[in-house]
Design brief:
By secondary structure, the chain is of the alpha/beta class. The chain has a single domain, classed as Rossmann fold. 40% of the residues lie in helices and 17% in strands. The protein is globular, with a radius of gyration of 17 Å.
Amino acid sequence: MGRVIAIANQKGGVGKTTTAINLGASLADQDMWTLVIDCDPQANTTSGLGVAKDPSRRHLYHSMLMDVPLGDLIIPGPIEGLHIIPSDKNLIGANLELINNPQREYILRQRIEPIRERFNYILLDCPPALDLLNLNGLVAADSVLIPIQSEYFALEGVSQLLDTLIRIRRSHNPKLAIEGILLTMFDERTNLSHQVRQDLRDFFGDQVFNTIIPRNVRLAEAPSHGKPVTMYDPECRGARSYEELAKEVMRNDQKGAGKGT
């Protein structure tokens, strides 16, 4: 049965979508059957994997609000073994339309259950907000991967998210683990990046991934071509970093779910 990993941080611009796209592609390159579910109404993961906008296409909204099985929404990704369930701007309506549903926090978990056994990994790209869509992702997940940018407010943001995870464990998902904290947009030329890395490791210890994602032009360019960076420029530093991250996630899986609780 596949592991479900939510990629989440309530702060925007920290590399969640970049990580969902490129970790998914790198896991598929390691012969892991991988599904990326775009849970963000901005649908950047959808377009970043080359899925063009199509008003007639069904997407995650149709499963969460209209009971369409997730299996009917799966689209093959740009590389073998990688699949996606697309999003659309209309998904934002789920935050209001599900509010009176007594099972509102568990909808995504219920939808995922019938397809879990089809994949080694299911990655959830969660929106940058502490809303009902984000909550559904965290309740559905076995673990959460937290990307954070190498900047001054990084520790404050991740501490707030960990407080949220504690509340979710108590109320909705007691088995939710920390897959790991991922340092992104790392600029090795600046003292600030190195200080943030050291502060994170001092505070969170082995919950921080060994892999660091650098600031990389090719990594930033790849989504505009609808490709993971491993297809766009497989030799660049960004591609190699996500390949290392995939291997680290797989090693963690062999040891047990996540880097810590």
